[in-house]
Amino acid sequence: MLGVVFALLAATCWGFSAILVRLGLQHLRPTTGTWVSMIPGILLVMTLALVFNLGDITTLAGVAFFWFALSGLFNFALGRFLNTLSIQLAGVSRATPLFSTAPFFATILAVIFLGETITPWLVLGTMTIVTGIILITSEQVR
Prior knowledge:
Layout: H1 2-24, H2 30-52, H3 54-58, H4 62-90, H5 92-99, H6 102-114, H7 120-141
């Protein structure tokens, strides 16, 4: 149950963040805004990791560092920049629902790179996401 609460809190934070990004873009370009938005996040996470997980940091395996560093490149740097740019170009109400297509791409990539199994529920969920994308993008045409 606590996991569900944290997921809903994360979704609320991301929704609020999209509004703040849109407001900030009135004064900065997406690249600069992305850079500025990363500073407090880095400081907070570094502090939490050092205080609560120093043992994990001092024994960090090189392979784990590599995978998480690569994840940071895609998520925090490239993903956040593209997120900011899309909010500037498409607006919050159009761009934000499309960010929710991440499970679609994660599913495809998990099957390709991790060998995860395709199930009927997985296909149904993926088709639901694709249908949502079509509905959102067709709304833009009208």
